[in-house]
Specification:
heterodimer, A: alpha/beta, five-stranded parallel sheet, four-stranded mixed sheet, 22 helices, 18 strands, 16% strand, elongated, B: alpha/beta, two-stranded antiparallel ribbon, 11 strands
C-alpha cells in the first residue's frame, strides 16, 4: 500500500502537537500537493524536499500523484522543520524505505537543495512534547543532538544529511557528509558583555544598605522591584548584580528555560542546558512583540519569557512605549503571557522577576539638591512619572528610592562590603524553605503563590493580618496590594528563618512596598 | 610634685569614686579645687554625709599607678588645667542640672590622636538608635560635609545615627569623636568594636567614666551633657517620642548651644521627636552646609539661597505681562483682539506691544502679533 506516515511536532507557544505526516503516492494527474493547513514556509517544503531527494541520489516519484497530509488537518502549521518528515514519508510511500522503520520516530530538520540538513529552533520543546506522546527515538540535525538528548530516555540520532538519515533507518553504513551549520538566529550583540556582567559583584558597591536589602528580598521571593533615583545613583549597577545573588536553576526550571530559549532560537547548541538564571535587559526602544512575544507566523517568545526564572530589567522604564507598558500588566500579575491571534491563543510562561528603573524626570537630574541641573518643566515631570503609576504600580512589590551619591558614600579603609556570594547563600536558604513549604504545588517561590492559597494555608499572625486589614480598609492599600504584601512578608520570614509572618515582617513588607525608609536594625537581622 | 600633677592625681582618685555628673561632689570640686576636696575627704573633714562613704574608699586608691597603667594602654586623662582641655565643658558649671546630673567633669579619659581643644569648631550629631536608612544617609552626609570643611563631629557610639555620623566622617577622613558612657577601654556596643578601634586610630574616644567601668542608664544621661557641651551645636537626626537624643538636645539648649533638627516624613515614627523639637523652636536643617552656616562665626559659610533662573518675562511690569498673556503663540492676532482679550485699552496695548517687541517677547507679522522667540521660551 503506497501510504506512509512519519512523525514530527508543531509548536504553538509552549504546547507541542504531534503531527503525522502521511504521504500517498498513486496514479493520477502528476503533481505534489500538501494539505492540512501549511503556511507559506511549509508549502515551499515541497520544492526543497524534491531537490533534496534527487540530489541525494534517490528518485523522487515525479511521474505520479503525491499527496501529503499534515494531520490533524485543522491545526495551522508553520516552520521548516517539517522537511525531513515529509521527505522520509515520501520515500517510504514510494517504496525506498520500509514504512515500519518510521514507527515511533520523530523527524526534525530543514533540508537544503543538496540534501543536507539545517538546524531549526525549538528542538527541545518538540522532543519534550513527543516524549509525552510515546515517541522513543528522534532524528535531529547533528548540532542539536545535545539539546534533544536533554530529554531523559530518548534515543537521539544526530545526522548531517538526508542520505545519512536513510542509512540510519535502514541500518546501512552512514555515508560521509559536510557538517551542519549552527542556527543563524543567535544574537550577535549583547547589551553589555556577558563576561562583564558575570564579574559584577555586590562587593563593588559602597553603602546602599537599603537597596541591598530590597534586592535580597526581591531575589529570595522573586518579587517585582522598582528602583527610582537621579542619574548616577546606581540603579543600573545594582540591578545588574541581581543575577549574582540568584541561586542556580532547579532541574525543572532549567528544562523550562532551555525549552523557551530553544523556541526563540537563541540557544547555543554547545552551551547545553541553561543552568544560570537569565538576565535580560532590552533597550527602551523595543517593540511590544520583542518584549511580550509574538511575531508573524510562528509565535516567538519575547524577552519576558526568555527571562523566565530570571530577571527582566527595564532601564529608563517610562521611556518604553505605552503599549509595552500596558502589556506588562498581565505577566506581572499572573506570571504568564498570552498572545492572542485570530485563530488561536498562545500562552508562554513568564515567571521571572521584573526590575524597573526610573529617573525622577526625563533629564534625570531632578533631586532635593537646590543646585540640581534639571531642565524639565513640571508638566514633563508629571507626565514622566505618570507612566509608572496606576495599575502597573499596584503590581510592583518593592519600591526603593536610591539617593544621589554624596560625600559620605566614599569607601572607608578597612570596611568590607558584603559580597554576592554571602547574599546568595542566604537567598538559597530562603528559597529552600519556600520549596519545602510549597512542595507538591505548581509554584516554587512566594512571588508565584496564589493569594487565596496563601491566606487559607499559609496565613500570617492575627496581629499582622489586623495591620494589613487596617491598611486596606483605610484605603491606603488595594486588595491586590494586600496579597502582594502577604507574599513579601513570607519572603522576609524565610530570610529571618521564622515560622510564619508576624507584625514585624508585615511592617517591613509595607515599608518596602510604599518606598518608606527601612529601619536600619531590620536590615541587619537575617538568618545566619 | 607640681601643683598641676597633684591636681591631676587628686582628680584621678576622685573620678574613681564618683559617678559621672554626680551633684554631691562635682560642685565642691568646682568651688574648692580637687586637691583640697581630696585632702578634706582623706582627713574625713566635716563635709556632710557625702564624706563618710567616700573617704573610706579614697584611702585605697593609687592614682599614680592608675595613670601609668592607662598610659601604657594608650589612654590619657585630660584635666581643666591642660592645654588640651576643651573649654566648652566649663560652661557646664553654670547651668541647672538635668535629671540630677550636671557640672563640669573632673576630667576626661581619652584614647586617640585627636586633641580635644580642636573641638572648638565641632558639631554634635545624635539621634535614634532605631534609625531608618533615610536617617543614616542624612546623618552621614551632614557629618561628611562638616568634617570636609574642617569641622569636627561629636557623637556617641550607639547603633543608628551615632555610628552613621562617624561613618560619614570616616569617608572624608574628617575629625570625629565618640563620647562613651562606659570606660574608654571598653567596646560598647560590641558590634561596633571595629569602628571604635578605627576611632582610636584616627580620631578620639572620650569618657568621663573611669577605665573598666560599664555603661549604665544613668551614665548615659551624664554622657549626653558632654556631647552637647563639647560642640558648638547639636543636630538631631531622627528621634522617636521620648528618645534619649532629646536629652542631648535639652542639654544643648541649656548650654545656649544651637539646637538643630533634620525633619523626616511626618508619618514616620522615627522622626516624631525631632518634629516636636522643631515646633518648640529648634532650627530646621537639611544639609551640612546649613549646619555650618548656623554654627560658624557670623559671615562664615554663608549660603546662597537657591532661586529659579530669571527669564525675560520676570523683568517686565505686570501691565505689560497682562498684554503678553493675551498674545497668541503661533498664529498672529490684531491689536484690537489682543486688547479685548487682555481687558486693556487699545492705545495702551499698542504702546505695550511696541515695548515688548523691543524686548523680543513679541513679533509683528503680516497677520498680526504673536509671541517672539523669548516669549515662547
Amino acid at each position: 500500500m503506497p501510504v506512509a506516515t512519519a512523525h514530527t511536532v508543531c509548536l504553538r507557544g509552549a504546547v507541542g502537537h504531534l503531527i503525522d505526516v502521511q504521504t500517498d503516492v498513486s496514479k493520477g494527474s502528476v503533481g505534489t500537493t500538501i494539505v492540512g493547513r501549511p503556511d507559506a514556509s511549509l508549502s515551499e517544503s515541497r520544492d526543497r524536499c524534491r531537490m533534496a531527494v534527487s540530489n541525494s541520489g534517490l528518485e523522487w516519484p515525479s511521474t505520479r500523484r503525491i499527496t501529503i497530509l499534515l494531520s490533524p488537518a485543522d491545526l495551522l502549521k508553520s516552520g521548516t522543520h517539517f522537511d525531513l518528515a515529509i521527505a522520509v514519508s515520501v520515500l517510504a510511500a514510494s517504496g525506498k524505505l520500509a514504512p515500519d522503520s518510521l514507527k515511533n520516530t520523530l523527524f526534525i530538520g530543514e533540508l537544503t537543495l543538496a540534501g543536507d540538513l539545517r538546524s531549526v529552533p525549538g528542538v527541545l520543546p518538540m522532543v519534550l512534547a513527543a516524549a509525552e506522546r510515546g515517541i522513543e527515538r528522534v532524528v535531529v540535525p547533528e548540532p542539536q543532538a545535545r539539546e534533544a538528548a536533554m530529554v531523559p530516555g530518548m534515543g537521539v540520532f544526530g545526522v548531517r544529511s538526508l542520505a545519512q538519515v536513510l542509512a540510519v533507518l535502514c541500518g546501512d553504513q552512514v555515508p560521509h557528509a559536510a557538517p551542519v551549520a549552527p542556527l543563524s538566529g543567535s544574537r550577535v550583540l549583547c547589551w553589555r558583555g556577558q563576561q562583564q556582567r558575570e564579574q559584577a559583584d555586590l562587593a563593588d558597591l559602597v553603602g546602599m544598605a537599603d537597596a541591598r536589602f530590597a534586592l535580597e528580598v526581591a531575589a529570595a521571593g522573586s518579587h517585582h522591584l522598582l528602583l527610582t533615583g537621579p542619574k548616577g545613583a546606581g540603579k543600573t549597577s545594582i540591578a545588574e548584580r541581581i543575577p549574582s545573588i540568584l541561586p542556580d536553576l532547579s532541574r525543572s526550571e532549567s528544562v523550562e528555560l532551555t525549552a523557551i530559549h530553544s523556541m526563540a532560537g537563541t540557544l547555543q547548541p554547545e552551551q547545553g542546558m541553561l543552568t544560570r538564571p537569565p538576565f535580560s535587559a532590552p533597550h527602551h526602544d523595543a517593540s511590544k512583540v520583542a518584549i511580550i512575544g509574538g511575531g508573524r507566523g510562528r509565535v516567538t517568545p519575547g524577552e519576558i519569557s526568555r527571562a523566565h526564572c530570571g530577571v527582566l530589567f527595564l532601564d529608563e522604564f517610562p521611556l518604553f512605549r505605552s503599549d509595552v507598558i500596558e502589556a506588562l500588566r498581565q505577566p506581572l500579575e499572573s506570571g504568564e503571557i498570552s498572545v492572542a491571534r485570530s485563530d488561536e491563543t498562545v500562552t508562554l510562561p513568564a515567571r521571572g522577576m521584573v526590575v524597573l528603573a526610573c529617573n525622577p524626570c526625563k533629564c534625570g537630574e531632578y533631586s532635593a539638591d537646590p543646585d540640581n541641573k534639571c531642565t524639565c518643566r513640571d508638566v514633563q515631570r508629571r507626565d514622566y512619572r505618570a507612566r509608572i503609576t496606576g495599575p502597573l504600580a499596584d503590581r510592583i512589590d518593592i519600591t526603593r528610592e536610591l539617593l544621589p551619591l554624596g560625600a559620605a558614600q566614599r569607601p572607608v579603609p578597612g570596611e568590607i562590603n558584603e559580597s554576592s556570594a554571602v547574599v546568595r547563600a542566604r537567598v538559597e536558604r530562603a528559597r529552600l524553605r519556600q520549596a519545602a513549604r510549597y512542595e507538591g504545588t505548581g509554584w516554587r517561590v512566594n512571588g508565584d503563590a496564589p493569594g487565596p492559597v496563601l491566606s487559607e494555608q499559609f496565613p500570617m499572625s492575627p496581629g499582622a493580618q489586623a495591620c494589613v486589614d487596617d491598611e486596606v480598609y483605610s484605603g491606603r492599600l488595594s486588595r491586590r496590594g494586600a496579597t502582594r504584601v502577604h507574599r513579601v512578608a513570607w519572603t522576609i520570614t524565610d530570610l529571618h528563618g521564622e515560622t510564619r509572618p508576624g507584625l514585624r515582617e508585615v511592617e517591613i513588607a509595607l515599608q518596602l512596598r510604599t518606598g518608606a525608609p527601612l529601619r536600619v536594625r531590620d536590615l541587619a537581622r537575617r538568618a545566619g | 610634685m607640681s601643683s598641676a600633677e597633684r591636681d591631676r592625681l587628686a582628680r584621678v582618685s576622685l573620678s574613681r569614686l564618683t559617678e559621672p555628673g554626680d551633684l554631691r561632689l562635682l560642685p565642691l570640686v568646682g568651688e574648692l579645687g580637687a586637691v583640697k576636696v581630696h585632702e578634706l575627704l582623706l582627713a574625713q573633714g566635716d563635709l556632710g554625709e557625702a564624706a563618710a562613704d567616700l573617704a573610706q574608699r579614697l584611702g585605697d586608691e593609687d592614682p599614680a599607678r592608675d595613670l601609668e597603667r592607662a598610659e601604657r594602654l594608650g589612654m590619657r586623662f585630660v584635666i581643666p588645667s591642660d592645654a588640651e582641655w576643651p573649654i566648652g565643658l566649663d560652661d557646664l558649671s553654670g547651668v541647672e542640672p538635668l535629671q540630677e546630673r550636671g557640672c563640669t567633669p573632673l576630667g576626661l579619659w581619652v584614647r586617640g590622636p585627636l586633641r580635644l581643644d580642636s573641638l572648638r569648631e565641632s558639631v554634635s550629631i545624635v539621634g535614634a538608635r532605631s534609625s531608618t536608612s533615610y536617617g543614616d544617609h542624612v546623618a552621614g552626609e551632614i557629618a561628611a560635609t562638616c568634617t570636609a570643611a574642617g569641622w569636627g563631629v561629636v557623637s556617641g557610639a550607639a547603633f543608628g545615627i551615632d555610628i552613621a555620623s562617624h561613618r560619614g566622617a570616616f569617608s572624608v577622613e574628617g575629625p570625629t569623636v565618640a563620647v562613651l558612657a562606659c570606660g574608654v577601654d571598653r567596646a560598647y556596643p560590641t558590634a561596633h568594636r571595629d569602628q571604635l578601634a578605627y576611632l582610636v586610630k584616627t580620631g578620639a574616644v572620650v569618657s568621663e567614666a573611669a577605665p573598666g567601668w560599664t555603661a549604665t542608664r544613668v551614665r548615659f544621661l551624664a554622657r549626653n551633657r558632654l556631647i552637647a557641651a563639647l560642640s558648638r551645636g547639636t543636630v538631631i537626626v531622627e528621634a522617636a517620642h521620648r528618645s534619649g537624643a532629646l536629652n542631648t538636645a535639652n542639654w544643648a539648649d541649656r548650654l545656649s548651644r544651637m539646637v538643630m533638627g533634620v525633619p523626616g516624613p511626618v508619618t514616620s515614627a522615627a522622626s516624631v521627636g525631632v518634629h516636636q523639637l522643631i515646633r518648640r523652636g529648634a532650627t530646621l536643617v537639611t544639609r551640612g552646609e546649613e549646619v555650618l552656616e548656623l554654627l560658624d562665626a557670623s559671615g562664615g559659610h554663608l549660603l546662597i539661597e537657591p532661586r529659579a533662573p530669571e527669564n525675560a518675562r520676570d523683568k517686565i511690569s505686570v501691565r505689560h505681562r497682562q498684554v503678553l498673556d493675551a498674545v497668541p503663540v503661533h498664529s498672529g492676532a490684531r491689536a484690537d483682539s489682543i486688547a479685548r482679550a487682555a481687558g486693556v485699552g487699545l492705545i495702551e496695548v499698542c504702546r505695550s506691544l511696541r515695548s515688548l517687541e523691543t524686548h523680543g517677547l513679541v513679533e509683528q507679522r503680516v497677520d498680526g502679533w504673536r509671541l517672539g522667540e523669548l516669549g515662547r521660551a
